[in-house]
Design brief:
The chain is α/β, with parallel strands linked by helices and 460 residues long. It has a domain of 312 residues: Metal-dependent hydrolases (TIM Barrel), CATH 3.20.20. The protein has 15 helices and 20 strands. The strands form 6 sheets. Strands 1, 2, 3, 4, 5, 18, 19 and 20 form an 8-stranded mixed beta sheet that branches. Strands 6-7-8 form a 3-stranded parallel beta sheet. A 3-stranded parallel beta sheet has the order 13-16-17. Helix 2 packs antiparallel against helix 15, helix 4 packs parallel to helix 5 and helix 9 runs antiparallel to helix 11. The chain is globular and about 65 Å long.
């Protein structure tokens, strides 16, 4: 049965599942906010709306309009937006927060304008506790949509439920739904029997499932089975000539994370993704780290002081690097990465929905910071700055079925916003030039935003 038949029901259930993360929580200890004379950029138009005033009350945007026509109430906190650019809060659609030392890292997301994350595996009780603390204003952190433990066919050092056959797979879906998770995550070691049993049960129960695609299943069958998003480009062949297929063979095991080459015509596969509403989350920041430069400097190294030793040790356990690198491995990895970057841009032009994700917190993707690197990589592959911004704002809202509350700067939307000192449509790297962040109606600017950065940096 085609997944499109379930689209309406699934969209409604997604909206219900994320109610906690999007609950109408009043902003803590703050008056109304007026961002005046600002240029607004969102996913509805590729050109800024100039000289706008954005009014925020509590956790919502209440008015957006030309500054001359908006009356700012007395007592409002006024932020002068002259020469600045306002975009919706960014989403990192592939993170792991519930790890040792993870609580202290949550403010880094907000400090970087990442006001929402999709957590792709973690202890469910921990995640629920953090969400509650964030909602009450006791903890600074992003909105969290989470899978809890994922379903896996073998043992791994990450919270999971074993699904080695159809019976275990079906029971696993039911158990996770009973826990109250927002969606089901599937992983790479599932056999075909287990995977398709998960897909069937997820459709029967009306719950979204997303994650890795086992090689024995393949991305075409995963899309037809209703998998909502494919992570890391897994099981999506790379576009290569027959000669490249030989020249770009992985030189060591972990380099295989970039996938394998194929000279087949991939246009029918992309068309299938479009028909089925299958999203793709490339996580290029993670691929740079684990598959391209394991013994060389990566952009995230300059931010290493934000990652506590407990986090670095945990990541090293999950992603062990080879002791020695074969000759020419570095150049092979670089060439394959550039191939993949161009491929994702081609997929996006074909109509495939692309999401921004980082697999944080890895060496090259410290929480929040890594998302800005991901934006840069997507642009390097050929996506326009506007298309990249959509992938971090409007597309997550569409994915969650929450376009009524997220994705654009408009009255009635949640007050999750990022104020920039330079135009990101001219250079996507300008998303790093942060003037202020509004997260659930709370303004973080100047020293207050700096404190969020120092909290994580001071963690042991």
């Amino acid at each position: 049965m085609r997944p499109s038949r379930f689209a309406g029901a699934i969209a409604r259930l997604v909206a219900i599942a994320v109610t906690v993360a999007f609950a109408p929580i009043p902003a803590v200890g703050q008056s109304s906010i007026a961002i005046t004379h600002v240029s607004v950029i969102d996913g509805d138009a590729a050109r800024p709306r100039t000289d706008q005033t954005v009014m925020i009350e509590g956790h919502r945007i209440v008015h957006v309009g030309k500054s001359a026509s908006v009356t700012v109430p007395s007592g409002a906190r006024v932020v002068d937006g002259r020469g600045k650019f306002l975009i919706p809060g960014l989403w990192d659609m592939h993170v792991h927060t519930a790890i040792s030392g993870g609580r202290e890292l949550l403010p880094l997301y907000v400090a970087n304008g990442v006001t929402g994350v999709r957590d792709m595996a973690g202890d469910w009780d921990t995640l629920k506790t953090w969400r509650s603390e964030i909602a009450r204003g006791q903890l600074v952190g992003p909105r969290i949509i989470a899978s809890g433990p994922y379903l896996e066919g073998g043992d791994v050092p990450i919270p999971h439920l074993l699904a080695r056959n159809a019976a275990e797979a079906t029971a696993g879906v039911d158990s996770l739904i009973a826990l109250g998770v927002d969606f089901i995550k599937v992983h790479s070691q599932l056999n075909a029997e287990s995977y398709f049993a998960i897909a069937r049960r997820a459709r029967e129960r009306g719950v979204v499932f997303a994650g890795h695609v086992p090689r024995v299943v393949g991305s075409a069958a995963a899309s037809d089975s209703g998998q909502k998003s494919i992570e890391h480009l897994l099981a999506i062949p790379a576009e290569c000539t027959p000669t490249d297929s030989v020249a770009l063979e992985p030189r060591y095991a972990v380099q295989g994370a970039l996938g394998r080459c194929s000279s087949e015509n991939l246009a029918p596969l992309y068309a299938k993704f479009v028909r089925n509403g299958t999203y793709v989350t490339p996580t290029f920041t993670a691929q740079v780290e684990v598959a391209v430069w394991p013994t060389r400097a990566v952009p995230g190294d300059s931010l290493a002081h934000y990652l506590p030793k407990s986090v670095r040790d945990y990541v090293a356990q999950i992603f062990p690097m080879p002791d020695s690198i074969p000759p020419n491995a570095d150049s092979v990895g670089r060439a394959m990465l550039e191939n993949r970057l161009r491929q994702v841009a081609a997929m996006q032009r074909a109509g495939v929905h692309v999401l921004t994700g980082t697999d944080a917190p890895l060496r090259n993707s410290p929480p929040g910071f890594g998302l800005h690197e991901e934006l840069t990589l997507l642009a390097r592959g050929g996506m326009s700055p506007f298309e990249v911004l959509r992938s971090a704002t409007l597309e997550p809202a569409r994915y969650f079925g929450m376009l009524d509350s997220l994705g654009t700067v408009a009255a009635g939307k949640l007050a999750d916003l990022l104020l920039l000192d330079a135009n990101p449509l001219r250079d996507i790297r300008n998303t790093r030039r942060i003037s202020a962040v509004v997260a659930n109606g709370r303004l973080y600017a100047g020293a207050e935003r700096e404190r969020l950065l120092h909290v994580a940096s001071a963690a042991p």
